[in-house]
Amino acid sequence: MRIFIRPILFLLVFLSGCTTYVGLHRPEKLMVPQGHATLDNIQTAIREGASLQGWQVEDEGPNYLIVSNEPYRQARFPTIQVTYSLYSVEFAYVSSRNLRYTHITEGKQLVRRDYNKMVNGLVQSIRHQMEQMRRTRL
């Protein structure tokens, strides 16, 4: 009986270290391809990239958008602030629902893996749209 208990305990301890929580991903700012870019073109690229990934975009002021994802998988969705200029597009965490964003005493911020996957998809889609914008301008 002892022979079976030790491997089971080891397996439980090992699996408890595997978690669905990871450090909060803060994407690097995207550099806007130079040329004939305008703020309207940049905003259009952000809107198209976000909508292709299922995000909703709301105007919050000049050069400032709030992007939120449709609820999925038990109503989990994040809200991201997108600030843009003629030179760069920056992303910042605003809030999330059911993604268990927390502060740990060591100051490390944790969130479910889903958040990072969704934000990475958003950033890649916007990057692609900005590259398309650049190609159509040339």
Average pLDDT for all residues: 78
Give the structural class.
Answer: alpha+beta
Proportion of residues in β-strands: 25-35%
Order of helices and strands: HEEHEEEEEEH
Biggest sheet record: 5 strands, antiparallel
The CATH architecture term is 2-Layer Sandwich
Helix share, percent:
25-40%
Q: Strand order across the biggest sheet? A: 2-6-5-4-3
Radius of gyration: 20 Å
Please work out how many helical segments DSSP would assign: 3
- Domain module count: 1
For this structure, the CATH topology is: TATA-Binding Protein
CATH-wise, what's the superfamily? Kinase associated domain 1, KA1
Q: Describe the global form.
A: elongated
Number of strands: 8
| CATH classification class | Alpha Beta
**What's the end-to-end separation, in Å?**
73 Å
Given as residue ranges, the uncertain stretches (5+ residues, pLDDT < 50) are: none
How would you describe this structure to a colleague?
This protein has 138 residues and is α+β, with helices and mostly antiparallel strands. It has a single domain, classed as TATA-Binding Protein, CATH 3.30.310.80. Helix content is 40%, strand content 30%. Strands 2-6-5-4-3 form a five-stranded antiparallel sheet, with helices on one face. Strands 1-8-7 form a three-stranded antiparallel sheet. It is elongated and about 70 Å long. It starts with a helix and ends with a helix.
